[in-house]
Amino acid sequence: GATDGPVSWTLLTTTSAGTSTYTDQSFTARRGVYYRIRATDGTYFSDYVTPTQKMVSTPSAYRGGITVQVGPGKANAVLTDALIDALGPGDTLEVYWDGVTPLLLKILLSSCGTAGHPITFKGIDHANGTRPAINGNGAIAVGGAAAADVDIYFILGVLPKIADISGYKPDHWIIAGFEIYNCRPEHTYTPYGAGSPIAYDPVNAFAACIYVKNALNVDVDDCYLHDGPNCIRQGSGKSERNYSGRMRVTNCTLDQWGHTQDGIDQRHGLYLDGHNIEVKNNVFLSGWINGAVK
Fold it and tell me: What is the arrangement of strands in the sheet containing 2-3, beginning at the earlier edge strand?
């Protein structure tokens, strides 16, 4: 059987006697998958072999690059889970807005592109010259749920969903052309699947306008990020499971990071905890506390 996580299983097939290999033709998902097997004589069944092998960060097949447009006057009026989940290598999701009303969205991006065909999430300027504004205060979550201990940390997040298996990492994303703001403890959002509004990180240390964790090859370009404990935070860790790497931050404006003077040294314009990082042509305005980059 195969599954997107370690809880539920789906029977794929029962092979004929003597079969030693099997190709799963149904496997096109972007996420990891476990397989487990057992033997049968048609009447009795052995115990399942403990699943020890997994396939991770597997991208969908390249489809030639599809551009999806979302916003006023477009075929898709609003951003939905289905639009986000359908993104694969080479695809571009363009977000339009009315030039006035901020988008109340909290967005999780968790698919995989490839080196030659990254996935692009792009804001398109209105005719009045303003970029799509994403306001985290009062936002509604789309794209799925992250694990509870990190779900409170982002307005726009590039990280695995809670259902993804251990070791899976979103890969090869380009994020460009947005204004993103308001993820302090006094700000709230409606979590994925509805429910009562909850506050962003109450410790006021880890949350960020853009939060990247357990992800690889993420580019952030030409964004205006402000009014969060961090504008961009790349969370990582010492283990391979939590490792994040190869990130570029270019042509962005970052402002009003931090919030209070309580001595927590984890609030910055850029808080980067990974490897192979490029920071170029960014503008750092002012923060309430701590330095622009750590």
Answer: 2-3, 33-35, 54-55
Cα–Cα dist 31/12, whole Å:
17
- CA gyration radius, the chain: 21
172-191 pLDDT tens trace: 999 999 999 999 889 999 99
Contacts of 86 (CB under 8 A, 6+ apart): 68
pTM: 0.80
**Measuring CA to CA, which residue among 149, 265, 268, 270 is closest to residue 214?**
149
Q: What is the largest CA-CA distance in the chain?
A: 71
Beta bridge partners of 198: 189
Amino acid 167 reads G
Residue corresponding to tokens 């570029």: 248
pLDDT tens digit sequence for 31-74: 455 677 888 887 888 888 766 544 444 566 677 899 999 999 99
